[in-house]
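Per-record layout

source: Characodon lateralis
name: Rho-GAP domain-containing protein
length: 368
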Amino acid sequence: IRKRRKSLRRRFDSFSKEKKERENAPNAFGIPLSQAIANDQAYKRRQDALKESRRDCLDLEASILRFRAEKRQFFNGNKPLGSSSSITGPGSPSANSVAPAPVFDAQSKPMSPTFLDNTSRGQRRGGLSVDCISDLVESQSRLLEALQLSHPAELELKKSPSEGRSKLSLNPIYRQVPRVVERCCSHIETYGLQTVGIFRVGSSKKRVRQLREDFDIGVDVQLDEEHSVHDVAALLKEFLRDMPDPLLPRELYPAFMHSNLLRGADQLQYLQHLLYLLPPCNCDTLLRLLSMLQTVQSYAQDTIGTNDEEIPGNKMTAANLAVIFGPNLLQRERGGDMSPQAMGIEDSTAIISITLVLIQNYRRLFTV
């Protein structure tokens, strides 16, 4: 009996430990990019289910309130005129009698927008929406991924006047960008374009750690003007640095390094073919990051405002951004010393050069 108790106690302890580890598992940082996006999708499904339940309750409450209002209007319209007529005849309705139920003409009264929306959702046919692709089985999902480059329904066709091509994303049906990356990029584009030394100036480690913990436990963090731009920039760099596999996978490291030996159109075509080999989540996240960096570097120089006042730039040119983000985007295979000193000056210079080309030419590289 003692041995059995000890074995049971060990099992309970192991179960509680596994449960605690599952609860404390990160949702964004230090996990594969695909897993972070899957966690975001699971969170979105939970939020949609919660909104749907609340929506049904609001629809029910609205219908009850409308019924009460129409019922009140019905009884007020059939109430006898004059306060002195206290004696009622046999044909007149008395105060204690039950009035007949009002008959409503369903065709004469417009339905509420929420009711119309609920009706259309049940009868919708045709093309798939963005959110239901993640609910498909694996075979259908892979088929759609294979057809993404030629799918006509969900694309925004923007004709390029110079080349006459259509600017398409490599993954146009579903934008697979982690929530933390999208929030950080949007915050920087909104509040940080005039911030001098963004991505270089130090941040508050305590505030950055708190933001990281909030994203890791699944909190829907809303980054607004109260958050420091330097804290958000440091959070974005931490996310890219802590990924198990960098945004440009390690298996393609030699191929990307070889692109530094090419020049001009050959180099851009070579890099574009390498981008085709990226997983959809890596490709979309890289596109979002490069577009933000391009926007930041466009505000690097001082500009003249509307009142002829010189607005200071953020001093972050494309070359400066390449120095900061290059080592986080492109890393060699694991094993040995990964420090910049052990990497060598030539490799480090090549990584910065390749990142610079990606930032300066991302629109052309992502043009199919």
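summary: The radius of gyration is 30 Å. Residues 326 and 352 are 5 Å apart (CA to CA).
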